[in-house]
Design goal:
The protein has one helix at 22-34, and strands at residues 2-13, 38-39, 43-59, 66-77, 88-92, 97-100. With 101 residues, the protein is mainly beta. It is elongated, with a radius of gyration of 18 Å.
Length: 101
């Protein structure tokens, strides 16, 4: 149901964040970009598990941001086929409903 997936991505860091710790900035940017996002082949991204490696910072001539390649692990909710989730209906709205597990 919950899987730790290994991913890689390029993170852009704005100039006003240069004075902070690099790993903290990268973690916050990855969570801002991926948390609560659904990818068809991956599942629902929940939160950052850890950062495996970070490459060198690259500064492009047309952009003031640093760009850094990051390899990381992310917690993903990916239910299996025929998996049954048990819960109680909490709220019922016109277009969706909330469950309490």
């Amino acid at each position: 149901m919950f899987v730790v997936a290994t991913l890689d991505d390029t993170v852009s860091i704005a100039p006003h964040l240069f004075n902070e710790q690099l790993s903290t900035i990268v973690a916050e940017e990855l969570d801002r970009k991926l948390a609560n996002t659904i990818f068809q082949e991956l599942g629902l991204c929940i939160c950052l598990y850890d950062i495996l490696s970070m490459g060198d910072c690259i500064l492009l001539p047309s952009d003031a941001n640093f760009h850094i390649k990051v390899k990381f692990r992310y917690v993903v909710f990916r239910p299996n086929i025929d998996e049954i989730l048990v819960g109680k209906k909490k709220y019922n709205f016109e277009y969706f409903f909330l469950l309490k597990f």
